[in-house]
Amino acid sequence: MAQQHPAVKLTNLLKPQIGDITTEIEREGQTLFGGSNNLLSGEEIQDFSVELLNLFVSLLSSKDPYDDSSPAFHALEIFFHGLSRQTMERGGRVEDLVRYTQFLHRLFSETVNGDAKMTVKDARELLLFLSGVFNELTMAIFRAYLEEKEKTIFAQESELREVATPITEIWDGVLTLPIIGTLDSNRTMLVMESLLNRIARDRSKAVVMDLTGVKNIDSQVSHHLIQMVRAVQLMGSDAILTGIRPEIARALTSLNIDLGDVTTRASLSDGLKEAFRRMNIHVSSHPA
Description:
Elements: H1 6-14, H2 18-33, H3 42-61, H4 71-89, H5 94-113, H6 120-164, E1 168-171, E2 174-181, H7 185-202, E3 206-214, H8 219-234, E4 238-242, H9 246-254, E5 263-265, H10 268-278
Parallel strand pairs: 2-3, 3-4, 4-5
Antiparallel strand pairs: 1-2
Helix pairs in contact: 2-3, 2-5, 3-4, 4-6, 5-6, 7-8
């Protein structure tokens, strides 16, 4: 008579206790994700508890339960990854997901240890198998956690780009770009990308770039700045630089940056007047 595979023995152990085990899984899910936490509804917890147990039994019943590249293992891994993402998107903590995984590991290990008929060899093999499975599932949780973090960081970077490049359409066809703070190479490239996209979108005819708030400038940034002006011109818009302070002017001169064919004005107000003049826009004040 062929000897039963340890995984088959575990399946046979679980089947008579399936109702009690499902109840325990639901109860732990309710403690960590339901109730006062209110991350998942009672129905959601019930559904994922049943699905989890079915996927685990499917893994045990598969051709090779120890193969972590098998479809059955992959399905269990995808389930944990999806549960982790869903929970964290609703404000759940990665610590609670890890605690849940540890609970499941403990629950199945106790089932193995509670069988008096199982040999020491089979029990040891199954406990090692369970450790391997739940280590991989913990990794799936952390992968989901890192993905959520990356999404958050990307969203924050997008917000920072918007704040760092406050491009405003001051008039139909006239954009203003006040640049404030340190203008390093990375930020210059971000500003250029946002500006050119905005010109293309709005079909702007003039861009007034105000440098009043720029603290310092280096040779690389100077060249990027000139490239930005040239790119604006290539897109059919007039580029007007304003607010070049004396120290920035001296730096540009010492770096041999030629602004001879670039329109400059002392202030943002003067730059806007120049942009309006070129577009034949006449703005007049009327007494109240």
